Amino acid sequence: MKRKAVCPGSFDPITLGHLDIISRGAKNFDELHIVVLNNSSKKPAFSVEERMDLIRSVTKDLPNIKVDSYQGLLVDYAREVGANVIIRGLRAVSDFEYEMQITSMNRVLHNDLETFFIMTNNQYSFLSSSIVKEVARYGGDISELVPPEVEEALRQKYMVK
């Protein structure tokens, strides 16, 4: 039986912090589903399809990664693909309270679904997609924050040289 996990997020855009969590999670599961979710409280820079394409591009060397999107509850997606683990990244203690609430609700909805938290490497503890977009919008150097494909996509999105 394959060990399957789900790694959800908005990934708008995917950063090196996300890739840190994804690559470490991929080492521990036979199949890791990266699931792009639409966060209704955020205004995305990239469409769901664009985000999925960027994720596929930057994870092409990880053979056990599957990239998907989903509109419903994450627990329903996990059931559909046969995953019993959700992987979530933690940057700082401040992330924990929010993540604990989500994990608790997921446990109510699907008691057999576990959440594994992976602490990001310290070099990415400040990093968020929102910060990357803000810096990119004003032409700042994001080369140490995102893969080259994402840097180029942001340059084109914001028409920055």
UniProtKB/TrEMBL annotation:
Residues 6-134 form the Cytidyltransferase-like domain. It is found in: Cytoplasm. Pathway: Cofactor biosynthesis; coenzyme A biosynthesis; CoA from (R)-pantothenate: step 4/5. InterPro entries: Cyt_trans-like, PPAT, Rossmann-like_a/b/a_fold. It comes from Jeotgalibacillus alimentarius. This is Phosphopantetheine adenylyltransferase. The record marks 18 as: Transition state stabilizer. Substrate binds at residues 10, 42, 74, 88. Its cofactor is Mg(2+). Keywords: ATP-binding, Coenzyme A biosynthesis, Cytoplasm, Magnesium, Nucleotide-binding, Nucleotidyltransferase, Transferase. Its EC number is 2.7.7.3. One of its GO terms (biological process) is coenzyme A biosynthetic process. GO terms for molecular function: ATP binding; pantetheine-phosphate adenylyltransferase activity. Homohexamer. Reversibly transfers an adenylyl group from ATP to 4'-phosphopantetheine, yielding dephospho-CoA (dPCoA) and pyrophosphate. Pfam families: CTP_transf_like (PF01467). Belongs to the bacterial CoaD family. The keyword Transcription regulation does not apply. One of its GO terms (cellular component) is cytoplasm. ATP binds at residues 10-11, 18, 89-91, 99, 124-130. It comes from the Bacteria. It catalyses: (R)-4'-phosphopantetheine + ATP + H(+) = 3'-dephospho-CoA + diphosphate.
